[in-house]
Amino acid sequence: MQNITIIGAGLAGSLLSIYLAKKDYGVNVYERRPDMRKAKISAGKSINLALSTRGIHALKEVGLYDEIKKISIPMYGRMIHSLDGSTSLQPYGKDMSEYINSVSRGELNKMLMDLAEEFPSVKFHFNMPCTSINMDKNEIYFRNDETGNAETIKSDITIATDGATSPVRMEMLKIPRFDFKQEYENYGYKELHIPPDANGHFRMETNALHIWPRGSFMLIALPNMDGSFTCTLFLAYDKSLGGENSFENLNSKEKIQGFFEKNFPDAIELMPELLNDFVSNPTGTLITVKCYPWCIEGKLALLGDSAHAIVPFFGQGMNAAFEDCTYLNECIDKFPGEWQKIFSNYQQLRKVNTDAIADLAQENFVEMRDLVADARFQLKKKIESVLFKKYPEIFIPKYTMVTFLRVPYSVALERGRIQETILHELIEGINKPEETDLKKADDLVKRMLTRLEIIS
Predict the structure, then answer these.
(1) Superfamily of domain 3-42+106-181+289-364, CATH level 4
(2) How far apart are CA 190 and CA 3, in angstroms?
């Protein structure tokens, strides 16, 4: 069998190595960082992961979901924290069977690597950053950070899962007609922490994703297995965009304290190490990457963030990368050994859909920070729920299509926009969901939508 090299031992690379090992390929995985199972690697720039249907499907295919479930916490909805301290839960799904899962990025990655190493055909190489690649010679160049030596690896097939700032993709920029676009949000994020109480218990509702929406910025919190919450503040970088509500302005402990007391009074009471965390943890960046082509002949392919980095506001970054693995695996089955066809088919299936989830994620940022606390938005969601119950195979909420089904992202984007038009028409002039003109709704739904084909 051909020798396959994976560059990047993160979530996508580790999962992909298992898929390939199950097909008896020899797989070498090269990772620039130390082995996180042995070395302590800071998670200060990490955002908690929200595992949902697409990622669960992939984990089930490799036989790992039952183990991951043990370190996952179900979140049944958004717990909205108003400025006055009141809270309200907005369910994610139609009932308690639909939820997303808070899971530790590090623990999930370790489990994937452990499972991969159960296959004798998989070998991991750590402290090996990729420095360049020669696609004509099928050679990859690494620097061994333990010895300081340069190393050259020959590879039949190379798959880069090396993240949003992918060195392999940087090499592909030299190829004529390679399209590349990256867009940084003028927002950064800061990871903070709510510890458990003295008895090791959660200090807020456990089974929810907590959001403090404040118009142009927000704080979120996801539960961890130890009773703590990982919090993330999303805030404008510059005064030019956010004024006093910006990282640029929060340049002293007094300003940080005052900002949280004013905007998140119920949260600050739960964060004894707020000032230390804020000062010591780095400010992360939010980037969207789109590029094309992902694949070079039958030799090289990009997968996951290296091909399509997205902002985290739909909780789909990991899920989309895992779904890449699912589709690539299906293409390998469809065209065994024909890597040019495999890569071409994989790229065709995924490119349009990852572009769509990138757009959906950017749209959802506005929804989370600006709209979830708005009365008209909440009314619209209630009408959406009414229509979903009345037309369960036709009018399916965008969030449900993305999170709880395996509907192609591009279909979810297109149908979501049509449904938004329908809701916009129905909400005009009413203040309660029971005032909805159901005759008009019936006409709009049947005229503008067709039955949705569900992927099992």
Answers:
(1) FAD/NAD(P)-binding domain (3.50.50.60)
(2) 41
